[in-house]
Write a structure and sequence with these properties.
Layout (H helix, E strand, L loop, with lengths): L1 E7 L6 H9 L6 E8 L5 H6 L6 E6 L4 H11 L4 E4 L5 E2 L3 H10 L5 E11 L2 E6 L5 H7 L12 E3 H6 L9 H9 L4 E13 L7 H15 L14 H15 L2 H9 L9 H12 L2 H9 L2 H9 L4 H15 L5
Parallel strand pairs: 1-2, 1-4, 2-3, 6-9
Antiparallel strand pairs: 4-8, 5-9, 6-7, 6-8
Helix pairs in contact: 9-10
Length: 324
């Protein structure tokens, strides 16, 4: 038995596809809690069109995603919780594969998966992170390899950790709080299609999000010894990447200079250095936001089984919108 938490806010144009993808799961025994965070559009009307008794609509006062998720946790009936976002699409076997993996792991496990990013009717790139618990934990110093909208965990563990806090990046905040007690598992297969939502962000918005990201990290990684990496070179690489993504270019350069001539064996860092030195600030932000490395990798693997499956699932899900 699984309780699925689907927070929504003014999602009339996208929530239908998400619900349909969940009702088409190979796992049939679940409850879907649609947590409406005070929508002012036709979201409620769209959700109530579904006559399936597993779909439960909950109207909440507008309080943000963290408050909606915490209320969903409190109202959920089952111990296993899964996350979903409005607009995103779950592959038919997503819940089955994650549930099977979770049941084979300790009570403090958090399971997620690889995902593909789409916009309009096209897949843009795949996101594939570290799959082992140790690698995921190390990379938390930069960003989470655990995509929040595709996660599954046990309610008791998340409740004991204090659930979600009303802060920017509420999911990353939770992962950082439990990083020393949780076992993170990322299934090495694409089980989610995630809608691209950043197209309307201005450079000011992006810089603000970077500041939030950096401020959230700092209490957990305040100095060189706090990264939990014994190798000095790997530590400086991590610090350089953190500054590259969320801090300042000067600090990234300072960290990477400490690696010295060994930089020659790190082509990704050399590429990042070239980008930092050649691009002006606005172009540099755009380069990072557009996930150029993932886009190139997707194009190179366009005819692979994973890429083909993603495109087929997207076509199927979008063609079903508005039916029934």
């Amino acid at each position: 038995m699984i309780s699925i938490l689907l927070p929504v806010y003014n999602a009339a144009g996208t929530v239908e596809r998400s619900i349909r993808s969940l009702l088409g799961q190979t796992v049939r025994e679940f409850e879907l809690l649609v947590l409406d965070d005070g929508s002012t559009d036709r979201t409620e009307e769209i959700v109530r069109r579904f006559s399936d008794e597993r779909v439960q609509y909950h109207r909440l006062p507008h309080g943000g995603i963290a408050a909606a998720l915490n209320e969903g946790i409190r109202r959920s009936r089952f111990d296993v919780l899964a996350r979903m976002d409005a607009g995103d699409i779950a592959f038919p076997d997503r819940l089955e594969r994650q549930y099977r993996a979770l049941m084979q792991r300790p009570e403090h496990s958090i399971v997620s998966c690889h995902y593909a990013v789409f916009r309009n009717r096209s897949v843009e790139y795949l996101v594939e992170g570290e799959t082992g618990p140790d690698g995921i934990r190390r990379r938390l110093a930069l960003h989470p390899d655990i995509p929040h909208q595709g996660v599954m965990y046990r309610k008791q563990f998340i409740t004991a950790a204090g659930m979600y806090r009303p802060v920017p990046l509420e999911d990353y905040d939770l992962w950082l709080r439990v990083k020393d007690s949780a076992e993170f598992i990322l299934l090495p297969e694409v089980l989610m299609l995630v809608e691209h939502t950043r197209s309307s962000l201005t450079n000011l918005d992006v810089r603000s999000r970077y500041r939030d990201h950096y401020a959230l990290q700092h209490p957990y990684y305040p100095d060189l010894t706090s990264f939990g990496i014994t190798d000095q070179e790997e530590t400086m690489m991590t610090i350089g990447w953190r500054e590259y993504f969320y801090g300042t270019r000067s600090e990234a350069l300072r960290a990477w200079r400490r690696i010295g001539f060994r930089l020659a064996v790190h082509p990704r860092i050399l590429t990042a250095l070239l980008v930092m030195l050649l691009l002006p600030e606005r172009a540099f932000i755009t380069f990072k936001e557009q996930r150029m490395r993932q886009r190139l990798s997707y194009l190179m693997r366009y005819f692979s089984a994973a890429s083909t499956r993603c495109r087929a699932q997207l076509r199927h899900s979008l063609s079903a919108e508005g039916q029934g």
